[in-house]
Structures are given as C-alpha cells and as structure tokens.
Design brief:
It is a single chain. The model is unreliable at 1-7, 132-139 and 189-193 (pLDDT under 50). By secondary structure, the protein is mainly β. It is elongated. It has helices spanning 155-159, 237-247, 260-266; strands at 3-6, 9-10, 19-24, 27-36, 39-42, 53-55, 60-63, 74-83, 97-101, 112-113, 123-128, 146-153, 162-165, 169-172, 181-185, 191-193, 200-203, 210-217, 228-232, 272-277, 293-299, 302-309, 315-319, 323-324, 332-342, 349-356, 361-368, 378-387, 393-401, 408-419. It is 5% helix and 44% strand. The chain is built from three helices and 30 strands. It has two domains: 3-261, Trypsin-like serine proteases (Thrombin, subunit H, Beta Barrel), CATH 2.40.10.10; 272-419, Jelly Rolls, CATH 2.60.120.200.
Length: 420
Amino acid sequence: MTMRVIGGTEATKGRYSYAVSLQDKFGHFCGGSLIAKDIVLSAAHCMGTEGGYNQDPGYNAVIGRHNLNTTEGVEVSVKTEITHPDYDWGTTNNDFMILVLNQSITGAGLVRVSPDIVPVGQGVTVMGWGDTDIADHLQTMPDELMETEVFVVSNEECDQSKGTAGGGYELDYHGQITENMLCAEDVTAEDACQGDSGGPLVIKDSSGDLQVGVVSWGISCAHDDFPGVYSRISAQYEWIRQQVCAESSEPPASFECESLALQASSNVGGWTPIVSEDFAGGFGMFDRHGNDATHYNAAMNRDGVVRIHTGEGGISTMKSNTISIQSSTFTRIKVSFSFYAIAMDHSDDLCLDYEIDDGAITGEKCWSSLHAFELSRWYDDMSFEFSSSNAQNLSIRFSVKGDDVVDEVMISSVSIEGLE
C-alpha cells in the first residue's frame, strides 16, 4: 500500500526545498527527494515502467513547488529509472529507486543521505502531498506540502503488529519486516499514506536535514496498531552511494565518490575478524541463561561441540551475548559456522537470526533440511551476510525448528567478520 501524510500540518514554504513531486499527465503520483543536483531518491514501487534500468520513463520531477496548483519551482523530465536490483514486488523489500534527471537543478537545497542506523525512539519527520483523510474509503489531496513527526520503533516490535483493518479483517505484519525496512509511528494518529510514497523521512537538523528513510508501505493509515513502514537507508546506503557516484554529473562531496575505487580494491578479501568461538572450553560467547543447548568436549569427530535440540513447542535456541562493534566502520557483517544435522525431517529448519543495536534491526535466514543440507555430515561453509552501517552492537541466535523433540543440530565453530 502506498502512503500519505495524516494528522500533519502545512510545512513552512521553502523549508524542505529538497522535497520532490513526481508527476505524470494525470498529476502528482509519488514523492521523492533531491540528493544530488540531478538525482532524485524515491521508492521502487513508484516506477513508471518495468523494474531495472529504464530510459525515458515518461514523467517529470517537480522541485521547489510548495503549492502544486502553482507554476513555481522547476519541472524536469526523468531521464532514467534505476530500481534496486533486489526489489521484491511481493514483499516491497528493498523499495528504493534512483531517478536521473535530464538536467541539473540550481537554487534548490539537497538533503544529505545518512548511512547511520536510526536509534529506536528517534523523532523523524515525513512530508508529502498525499491524502490527508484518515478514512480508508475517502481521499483528500492537499495542494500544499504537508509534514508530520513520528517516532522510530524497533523492527522486532513492528513485526509483531496486528489488528483489525480493511473492513474488519484481522491483519498483521508478522514475518514481513526485513532488515531493509524501518518503522515509525505516533500515538496521535499521524502517519504517511497514499500519494506520499517515495518521499523522504528525515531527522531535522539546523546544519542540514539527514534522510534516513523512504516512504514505502503500511496497513491502513495512522492506524493505532500498525506503524508506517519505510525503506531503511542505512541498509542500502552503499548501493545509493554507488548509483549517485556513477550517474550524477556533480555528486555531493558527502558521498566521497573519489574513494569508491580505492574502497572496492581494499574490500577484496577484506573481511576483518570480529569474534570467533570454537567451544573448546564451554559455551564461550553463547554462555547465556535460557539456551536450549548442551556442551560436549568432543562429539562427531570434532573437539568442542554444542548440541541444540528442539524443546517444548518444536523450537530450541542458542543466543550469543551482546557483541560490541562500537566505533567500527563496517557496512556488512558475515556470520560463518560449521554444523552437523541429526534426525531432522524435511519440514524442519536450521535458522540464524540477528539483532543490531538491541533489536533496532533484526533479520533471519533459514536452511531447510529438504533442500539445503543432508543429515549426518559436517558442513563447514555455511554463512549469512547482512548490512550493518554504523552499528554499535549485535547478537546472533541459532534456532532449530521442527515438529518433534528429536530434531537436533551440532555446531562446532562460529565466526563473525566485518567488511568496511
């Protein structure tokens, strides 16, 4: 579902000169933000043609027009649409799109794209020209740019959202909130919705606003039970940076484009060890109360092994202690491990999930015993990568999910590395 500003107020004229209205022959249909003089950041679901790299999509970007009924500002045709290569229509994951304009814009401010993870509770501002009526069956489109403040909630809390919407149906976000998404809400019925999609979510700052999200989707609008969902810029900052550096005739200095070639060269084989565990002396970094695991000095021809086996409810877990990565410059984290599966049915899974900054960002990957691995053999090359720009801490958790109490997995080593 696309998004709008609900319960907001009219923005001060000129305050958000980087706000962009995308318009086709029917008028405004999505928002965006000017992040370079010839580059607009928007949402992939706003694309005018099929996804990928599209020339001349057939619509314009309007910059510097507070009231859409006027002719103020400038109107520039969009030369190229570049949608994120991993954008998923079905889940709205990686809902990012770069628009290259046919000419550079002068006289309009730029918003700085932030690589930083946004802390839970942070006040953020969303703006747009979308629908202002909270009723799902009514639509009131403003002429002026509207804004409202909302507050960031953790992905874990957001994923647990459920309630009644859409004509009385029971709906939920369960399993839909990915590491590439950011959730925000307000207790006074303020939100974004239809018509605001692609617009910026920013942290206001007197020295220049910082964009941390892109309006993406949500259930209903300003609903008490469902936060608005935004594309999380910190998760895909490097992709945005690479597109701006490659496509803009005048990329902002903040993107440090001159260092990209050097960075690419240094990243070859450039994973830096953060922490590792071989279980030689016990659980080590997994020494937590509540873990459903047993330590063995030796098992299955390996020294130092932990056994995770399904408990009550068909799931067992082993979670690590909190791992500090404060002051690091890692943009990605890789977890590698060795494991041996025992007595798992085809419907059973081995899962690895993570939490960044005390649950501000979460994610999970599962391997099915039907497709990903065989029983009774060691696998030493399993790994999972995820984004981590400017994270302060993280924790990981292994889970065995099965239908009975005999499903179990042995793990002999775990290593965590970071990539700058």
